[in-house]
Automatic annotation (TrEMBL):
Keyword hit for Amino-acid biosynthesis: no
Name of the protein described by the UniProt record: DUF3054 domain-containing protein
Species, as recorded: Cryobacterium shii
Keywords: Membrane, Transmembrane, Transmembrane helix
Record bears the keyword Transmembrane helix: yes
Membrane-traversing stretches: 12-31, 43-61, 68-89, 95-119
InterPro entries the record matches: DUF3054
Length: 138
């Protein structure tokens, strides 16, 4: 499965996409509640912390685009770690927010990995050169 070294660019793009998609989640949430962008960082940092915990705990740089275990683990760490960090920092953690967060981050963090896998498969079938974003471990 994962026999070759993962390129540094693949790791950086994967980590960047994860962080950017968590930020998109935060911005959508703040906009849906008519809240300004100013507080986005206070909402983003706990989930970014959970995401970082997941990356380190799973050593995600070894296979950053795998859906199972990497993607699922990062998703769950971002949600659980984010909620825990929100709780200890005095931010709200309502059940409805946990449910929405779990669903949206699942779609975002697993979704791009699924799309990248589909792109890799399609390009491999055509024998085409694999786009850098779709390049990953096999």
């Amino acid at each position: 499965m994962v026999n070759q070294r993962v390129r540094a660019s693949t790791v950086l793009v994967s980590a960047g996409l994860d962080a950017a998609l968590v930020l998109v989640f935060v911005l959508i949430g703040r906009a849906s509640h008519s809240e300004g962008l100013l507080g986005a960082l206070s909402t983003w940092w706990p989930f970014l912390g959970g995401l970082a915990i997941g990356w380190v705990a799973l050593r995600a740089w070894r296979s950053p685009q795998r859906i199972v275990w990497t993607g699922v683990g990062i998703w769950l760490a971002a949600v659980a770690g984010g909620m825990l960090l929100r709780l200890v920092s005095g931010q709200g953690v309502q059940l409805s927010f946990v449910i929405v967060t779990t669903i949206v981050l699942g779609v975002f963090l697993l979704g791009w990995r699924g799309l990248a896998a589909l792109l890799r498969r399609a390009q491999a079938r055509r024998g085409a050169r694999i786009h850098p974003l779709a390049r990953a471990e096999r």
